[in-house]
Each structure stands twice: as C-alpha cells, then as structure tokens.
Amino acid sequence: MQKRTILSLRPTASCPLKIQPDRSEGVNTITRHDPSSIWVGTVSFAHSLLVPWQGEVQRWAPARIEELQAAHFDQALSLRPELVIFGSGPRHRFIAPALQRGLIERGIGVETMDTAAACRTYNVLASEGRAVLAALLLDPSSA
C-alpha cells in the first residue's frame, strides 16, 4: 500500500497562512451585495447600476425588471463591453430578447442571472481582464 501525503492549510508558527484578495489596479470590483445595496470597491450604491470593468460606475434607471426598456440596454453600448452580465434582481428572471437586440446585433454577449450571481460572475471575469459590464437591478423597496 502506498503512503499518501496530505497537505495541510493550517497555519503554523513557521508558516502562517495569509490570504489576500487579488486586486487589479484600475479594475472595478464588486465587494459586497445585499438586498438594499451594492458596493463597488469602498463605495455603496442603493440603486441599480452599470458596473464596467474599468471606468466610472453609472446609475441605471430601472429598479425592477418590469421597468426595463431597450434604451436601458443601449446605455451599455457607450461602455464598449464584450459581454454584459445582467442581474435580474433577487430571482433569476429572463427578459424579452427584443430588449437586448442592440447589444446582440453588435456581437455583445448577454448572460442573465440573479443579481447576487451576476456580482460574483462579473468579479471573476473582470479579474481575468475581460471587458465585462454588470447591469444590476437593485430595487431598494423590496429589501
């Protein structure tokens, strides 16, 4: 029988375990999400957002999926993403393809998921250097 070596991740006096977040300079990172706010870096927002991988976070007018119009997704075009991660609120809800037509016609991918999952997915893609945009619905009245 072969002897197996198991690595331990427990810190010891000679080898402390130190975990640090991987942060890329100039890349927006969503650091927290709860029903009433989304944090990008150290800034808290209490409304829906467009979070580009780089540059300024923008207020996004719709708070609920029922308020969405094609013009809301067209706002994303000026940020020049290769992929839009759409956070549909607390539940995963699909939207009419016509609302995304402007993005799709320009070859910009769109993925839909609940807002919490969209925040996590955005962070992974942004950390990989992808030109990703998170379009996140946040309805403070439902918190």
Question: Can you tell me about this structure?
Answer:
- With 143 residues, the chain is α/β, with parallel strands linked by helices.
- The protein has a single domain, classed as 3-Layer(aba) Sandwich (Hypothetical Protein Mth938, Chain: A), CATH 3.40.1230.
- The protein is built from 3 helices and 8 strands.
- Strands 5-4-8-6-7 form a 5-stranded mixed β-sheet, with helices on both faces.
- β2 (37-40) and β3 (43-45) form a beta hairpin.
- The N and C termini lie far apart (57 Å).
At a glance:
By secondary structure, the chain is an alpha/beta fold. The chain has 3 helices and 8 strands.
Order of helices and strands: EEEEEHEHEHE
Distance between the termini: 57 Å
**Approximately what portion of the residues adopt beta-strand conformation?**
15-25%
Strand order of the largest sheet: 5-4-8-6-7
The second-level CATH architecture is 3-Layer(aba) Sandwich
Tally of alpha and pi helices = 3
Quaternary structure of the protein: single chain
What characterizes the major β-sheet?
A: 5 strands, mixed
CATH names the topology as Hypothetical Protein Mth938, Chain: A
What's the overall geometry? globular
* Rg result: 19 Å
